[in-house]
Amino acid sequence: MSLEGQGLTCSRGMVTLFRDVSFRVERGEWVAVRGPNGSGKTTLLRCVAGLTRPDAGQVLRDAQIAYAGHLAGIKDDLSAEENLRGSLALAGARAGADAIRGALEDAGLFKRRHLPARRLSAGQRRRIGLARLMLDPAPIWILDEPLTALDDEGQALLARTLSRHVDRGGLALVATHHDLATAPARVLHIGPRGSA
Which pLDDT tens digit goes with each residue over 145-176? Predict the structure, then answer.
């Protein structure tokens, strides 16, 4: 299992965000994507996830992906538990009631599991996504700024969750400006001049 980008180039209008970006992520590792604001980190991840078409290049992957954008991606009128069940169902992942409750407990949301998401803080809303990652069996994770709005405890939880994922043979491509407790295999720098 691997994830590979070959010669990826993407523009927005007349501006080239990145050119000729190539990378390979193998089973059991994660790669951090870094670059200044506006360099195209989100666009690169969307290309890798198949949500945006690059101007040039190709993405090769041989397994199912779990994509988490920089927004929480939850429904305000649904509870934390309903959002978790719904996101797993959309991904085609099956999880029993005990597993869902366990993930909400681990994410620090068990006592708030029945509250509508609109009544949760930004960090708590982000933790719904963490609970989803704990249960999603997809071997490839593509995460865009997953630490946004998380407190120190939430950031440590993400680092542990990512570590468990790669220790089990998963792989991840993660855009983040922050260092995680678990170090990346490599750092991929992007911008108009491509990768370094």
Answer: 998 889 999 999 999 999 999 999 999 999 98
CA 142 vs. chain centroid, Å, equals: 4
What is the spatial distance between Cα 46 and Cα 64, in angstroms, rounded to a whole number?
Answer: 15
Distance CA 116, CA 137 (A): 26
**41: number of Cβ within 10 Å:** 26
Per-domain residue ranges of the chain: 1-63+139-196, 74-136
pTM comes to: 0.90
- What does the DSSP 8-state code read for residue 184? P
CB atoms near residue 166 (< 10 Å): 19
Buried b vs exposed e over 81-107: b needs ≥16 C-beta within 10 Å?
bbbbbebbeebeeebeeeebbbbbebb
Query: Of 3.90.79.10, 3.40.50.300, 3.30.1330.60, 3.30.70.270, which CATH number belongs to 1-63+139-196?
Result: 3.40.50.300
Q: Which helix (H) or strand (E) holds 100?
A: helix 97-106
Buried-state track 112-150, b at ≥16 Cβ within 10 A, e below 16: bbeeebeebeebbbbbbbbbbbbbbebbbbbbbbbbeeb
